[in-house]
Design brief:
By secondary structure, the chain is of the alpha+beta class. It has two helices and five strands, in the order E-H-E-E-E-H-E.
């Protein structure tokens, strides 16, 4: 069985900078108001570098990753 890393998003803290959607459009998009939407919550390994960069660059710390096994 493949283990996935889980993406967590606190939409209440999102201010709509859009950095996440620019850095990783496969996983993140913006809703009609310009706030983050996670297109998936289980992140495959091949997308992890881009997701990690988006999490790191989020100015409001809205995004987090729960690693498999935690």
């Amino acid at each position: 069985m493949t283990a996935f890393n889980r993406l967590e998003v606190d939409r209440n803290k999102c201010c709509g900078y859009g950095t996440c959607a620019e850095l990783c459009p496969e996983v993140f998009s913006l809703d009609e108001n310009g706030f983050v939407v996670a297109n998936m919550t289980e992140i495959p390994d091949q997308l992890m570098p881009a997701v990690e960069e988006a999490v790191y660059c989020c100015p409001e710390n809205v995004l987090s990753i729960r690693k498999s096994g935690e």
